[in-house]
Amino acid sequence: MKRTQVDILMPVFNAEATLPACLKSLSRQTEKRWRCWAIDDGSTDASPEILQDAAVRDTRIHLISKKHEGIVSALNTGMRYCTAPKTARMDADDWMHQKRLALQISALQKNPRWSAVGCHVRGFPRGDMTAGGRRYEAWLNGVQNEKDLCSEAWIECPVAHPSLMFQTSTLQAFGYHEHGWPEDYDLVLRMLTQGKHIGMVPQKLLSWRDSPNRLSRTSPRYQLDAFTRCKAFYLVQNFLASHARYVLWGHGPTGRRLRRSLAEYDRSPSHIVEVHPRRIGQVLRGAPVIVPEDLLDLRPERIVVSVAGASPRAKIRMALNAMGFQENQDYVCAA
């Protein structure tokens, strides 16, 4: 029998309505050397029975049952069973494109420095997607390569968690942590800030379900404030590790939220960059409000751009680059 090339790590909780289609998408993979660890996190519906029946029909599927403790516990439980060279994340309500596993394995083999690789997604059902959901999908699919992923990492998680395939050794070394904020974003930022490389296959290889009941919509750990706390924590560990003061570009709701989170770690803005005429010249929380051109004389060592919207951020990046500042060295965009 050929050696298993990839373990599929799939937490399951009350997914009876979506499991059959999800499992069918696994069976259609062109890469056949996979094994699926389905971690049932105390489901109260027919999920365990569906998985058990599937395991009888296909011996590559394995059901691991545990009491309900949440997604972090389920992921860490399942991770211990993964012994193949690669581990692919999957959610029980999503579908895989038939070439997903093959293309991501190939990408990792061609790029040995990559510790993980993501792919683009297609949200569904299309008719139920909100305008915000479509914008988020477009933003995710705008990440074309490793450089884009690093630049966008402080905005939000720049890759859909169930689209990731990891080098198993890296995933097991890092594991999933419980901090009360998104476990996927936490893992991605930990990996990036510790020098790991995450690549991208810029093809839509995952159909990513967008529903009102999705955990990312219902759990407090995925709310906006939780994302902000997560990025603030890792900014302090990395970009602001040696800098208690920074220049904050933007003091709208997004900027104020990040400023408050960074203040919990004794990081505060020395200056605030604004373009709003009424704010220029004011002093906000001890920080003078300046115009962008003042940065040429100030030459700060650390600039945190905290402005909502991809279009405004693109203009700010152009302005900072024109002034000679380098992204991820002198400034980051952290919306």
Any overview of this molecule?
The chain is α/β, with parallel strands linked by helices and 335 residues long. It has two domains: 6-222, Alpha-Beta Complex (Spore Coat Polysaccharide Biosynthesis Protein SpsA, Chain A), CATH 3.90.550.10; 241-333, NAD(P)-binding Rossmann-like Domain (Rossmann fold). It is 36% helix and 23% strand. The chain has an eight-stranded mixed beta sheet with strand order 3-2-1-4-7-6-8-5, with helices on both faces. It has a six-stranded mixed beta sheet with strand order 11-12-10-9-13-14, with helices on both faces. Helix 1 (19-27) links the parallel strand 1 (6-12) and strand 2. The longest helix is centred in the last third of the chain and has 14 residues, at 224-237. It is elongated and about 70 Å long. The N and C termini lie far apart (49 Å).
Number of strands: 14
What is the CATH class of the largest domain?
Answer: Alpha Beta
- In CATH, the homologous superfamily of the largest domain goes by the name Spore Coat Polysaccharide Biosynthesis Protein SpsA, Chain A
Treating each run of at least 4 consecutive H or I residues as one helix, how many helices?
13
Task: Report the end-to-end length measured between terminal Cα atoms.
Answer: 49 Å
The overall pLDDT average reads 96
Shape: elongated
Number of domains: 2
Q: From the alpha-carbon coordinates, what is the Rg to the nearest angstrom?
A: 21 Å
Determine the CATH topology of the largest domain. Answer: Spore Coat Polysaccharide Biosynthesis Protein SpsA, Chain A
So, CATH architecture of the largest domain? Alpha-Beta Complex
Helix fraction, binned, reads: 25-40%
Assembly type of the chains comes to single chain
The ordered H/E elements are: EHEHEHEEHEHHEHHEHHEHEEEHEHE
